[in-house]
Amino acid sequence: MDDFGRPPPDDYQLAVQVHHRLRRAHQRASAIFLDTIGDTQLTPTQWAALATLHGEGPLSQNQLGRLTYMDPATTQGVILRLVERGLVERQPDPQDRRRTSVRLTRVGQAMVVDRLPDAAAVHDRTLEPLSAEERTVFLGLLAKLM
Fold first, then answer.
1. Is the pLDDT reported for residue 126 higher than 80?
2. Side-chain half-sphere of 77: how many Cα atoms within 13 Å?
3. What average pLDDT does this structure show over 26-42?
4. What is the 3-state secondary structure (H, E, C) of the chain?
5. Residue range 2-8: average pLDDT?
6. Given Cys at both, which of 7, 36, 92, 108 links 11, Cβ 3.0 to 4.6 Å?
7. How confident is the model at residue 8 (pLDDT cuts 50, 70, 90)?
8. Whole-angstrom Cα distance, residue 43 to residue 119?
């Protein structure tokens, strides 16, 4: 191993690779999300869209995608699924009819408000194995990688 924990090139080990560890951590966080939120139809990506609309108000599809770090195709699919569930609605943007504006419905707004405590619990459960100091360091390091 070198000073950064990397194995020499001829001794590649998947288990210690950053992409593998991040993927496994993401799988764990997603499982905790699904278990805690209790809605098998609501994905973490859909929650990101709902929570962003709750915090920001109506947004264009492009703005929503940028704020949630989703590519346009993913944003479109997420919005379509949320429209089907009656949680968001789309309409032409009043400032620019070529754009589509997305906003929470009353049902969507109520659902987000009801689930906010669960979302906070997801955060705590995900970081549960870490001490308070480790949490601070970990979240700071993740921010640096983003």
1. yes
2. 7
3. 92
4. CCCCCCCCHHHCCHHHCHHHHHHHHHHHHHHHHHHHHCCCCCCHHHHHHHHHHHHHCCEEHHHHHHHHCCCHHHHHHHHHHHHHCCCEEEEECCCCCCCEEEEECHHHHHHHHHHHHHHHHHHHHHHCCCCHHHHHHHHHHHHHHC
5. 68
6. 7
7. low
8. 12
Locate 35 and state its tokens: 């278990």
Q: What would you report as the CA-atom Rg of the chain, rounded to the nearest whole angstrom?
A: 19
Residue type for 21, please?
R
Place of tokens 């764990």: 28
pLDDT of residue 84: 96
pTM of the full structure: 0.84
